[in-house]
Amino acid sequence: MIRRIYGPSNDDGSRVVRMACIWIPRGNAKTTLAAALGLAHFLGPEAEAGGQVVMAAADRENAGIAFNSAHQFVLQDDTLASRVRAVESRKSLGHPKTKSTLKAISSEAYSKHGLNVSFFLADEIHAWPTGEGRKLFKTVTDSMVKRSHPLTVIISTAGDGQGGLAWDLWNYSHKVATGEIEDPTFAPIIFAAEPEADWRDEAAWHAANPAIDAGFCSLEELRIKARRIEHFPAEIADFRRFHLNQWQEGSANPWLALEVYDAAEAMTPVEELTGRPCWIGIDLSSVEDLTAVVAAFPEGDGESRRYDVLPMFFLPEANIATKGEKDRADYMRWAAEGFLTLTPGNVVDHSAIVDHVIALGEKYGVQEIAIDRWNSTAVNTALQEEGFTINQFGQGFASMAAPVKELKRAILTGHFRHGGNPLLRMCFGNVVADKDAAENEKFTKERARGRIDGAVAAAMAVGRVIANEVTPSPYESREGGFLFI
């Protein structure tokens, strides 16, 4: 790790790397290492006059863990201790000779303007609040442009969910590591098992955890934990995340694997969908949650039927950062990218949903709209007044079994052409299905890990497609017409 960060240099001897992402499982002393790097920039070989070393985590208490490690380093050496002034109540160290400081900070970005940071430690970034975490990261890194050789070190285990700063950095790290992106100033350092590795394979444990071979991560404890959790899917997901460093997306007991969902055929270009018949599913939220509108454009029939889907999502803009943190979703970025419509206030604006459906009707051949019976009276009435055909769609096995079965067939064959919409992907990743005695499935929001509204709306749209499929009468295929007995 040290060589990868500090080794590459320019012709003048200056360090090439400006940002390093270290992804490593729990129990590998990553916070201790981070504390040592902070000290190197505070009063060690990387120190500079008036340096500002900042250690940040999900909250000030967690940031204090790295600070306390750094402070203990100092206290264990008489020479260092004599040169450093500590204010433990403020989690701050000062070096009077160089006027440098080392301090732990919380994730609230509003109070961090005016910094002039030379070294920034972002610890356990997977746990940072979605909204405030991104603001803090930008505030601190923006302050570093005043320095000639600043360094940001992100050190974390893999996270879960989709969207957010940690997800972006995880993806960027892998793209740089594989050569897809060329960025010599960015150092990705990844200790992780292969994505397809068996979580019980001890070779995968060794690959992800250098501390096992170094002797300070107990192999026996991992064995005990693995035996204990074998029949608990949620704990297996945590084991993969914290001990194999495998990013966990969606539900711990998912309806389908996201790698299967991602392997869909390319979507038909949107401009080529103009005028084509489509069926729409609307899953209305409670007053302040996510609402999904999904238009499904079928092509073909039977087992070869394909679906192009155009989803749009709606969310009240009030407290958007808090909602993103709760749902593990980067709603602000997705809104900026056009995947999400934010409506004014703190309750869902049904008129925006009606306007969107009217716009779809003006461009495409909307055949029918399936809408959840719950809380749909106002939207239902408004759309009927616009001349749309409405179908009140239940959420029980009777209504959902056939649509869910057809949706699964389309996804497994790559025929559900979703175009990579990130909100729709998040919803499918969160789906957990209930089964009845006959193995029929329906989506359940009660046991889902996060928002599944887009998946529910897609199932309703697909359900109306297959309900309106014209099948030949059995009498048309019988030779000689009716058979009388």
TrEMBL record:
It holds the Pfam family TerL_nuclease. It comes from the Bacteria. Coiled coil: none annotated. Residues 6-173 form the Terminase large subunit-like ATPase domain. InterPro entries: P-loop_NTPase, TerL_ATPase, TerL_nuclease, Terminase_largesu-like. One of its GO terms (molecular function) is endonuclease activity. Residues 190-469 form the Terminase large subunit-like endonuclease domain. This is Phage Terminase. The lineage of its organism: Bacteria, Pseudomonadati, Pseudomonadota, Alphaproteobacteria, Hyphomicrobiales.
